[in-house]
Amino acid sequence: MRKWLSVSENRYRSNKIKQEHTILSDIFPFLEEIAMMKTVKSIIPGRINRRKGSGIQAYLQLKYKTASGIKLLGKTSSSIQEVFVVTDNQDKTIENLKLKEFIK
């Protein structure tokens, strides 16, 4: 069973989500929902690291604010992926993520 979505031959952006790199399939639905938020300009998935499997459900964790938005970690039972959300209104975006219970 594949744990991530494959990268297209052409780097492209779909629904505000930049798909230049591999995206963990378990967190992709979260990213699609986040992309629909009016305060979000872009979502840039980053590096994927392995973690010890613990059988947890996929979730997002807020790390910190950045100059261009916020950094999240997408966590699954076996991997962690950095996710950068580009926004002009960090506080409103974080509030919306908490309201939708997307972040822990």
Shape: globular
Which class best fits the helix and strand makeup? Answer: alpha+beta
Give the total of domains.
1
State the major sheet.
4 strands, antiparallel
Order of helices and strands: EEEEHEEEEH
Distance between the termini: 27 Å
Number of strands: 8
From the alpha carbons, calculate the radius of gyration and give it in angstroms: 13 Å
Q: What's the total helix number?
A: 2
Strand order of the largest sheet: 5-8-7-6
How large a portion of the residues is in β-strands, by DSSP E? 35-45%
Mean pLDDT: 84
Q: Which consecutive residue ranges, at least 5 long each, have pLDDT under 50?
A: 6-10
- Helical fraction: 10-25%
Organism: Iocasia fonsfrigidae
Pfam families: DUF2103
Protein name: Metal-binding protein
InterPro entries: DUF2103_metal-binding (IPR018664)
Name its key features:
alpha+beta; DUF2103_metal-binding; globular; 104 residues; Metal-binding protein
Please outline the helices and strands.
Layout: E1 4-5, E2 13-14, E3 17-18, E4 23-24, H1 28-35, E5 40-50, E6 59-65, E7 69-75, E8 79-87, H2 90-99
Antiparallel strand pairs: 1-4, 2-3, 5-8, 6-7, 7-8
Describe this structure in words.
This protein has one domain. The longest helix is centred in the last third of the chain and has 10 residues, at 90-99. A four-stranded antiparallel sheet has the order 5-8-7-6, with helices on one face. A two-stranded antiparallel ribbon has the order 1-4. Strands 2-3 form a two-stranded antiparallel sheet. It is globular. It is α+β, with helices and mostly antiparallel strands. It contains two helices and eight strands, in the order E-E-E-E-H-E-E-E-E-H. The termini are far apart. InterPro entries: DUF2103_metal-binding. This is Metal-binding protein.
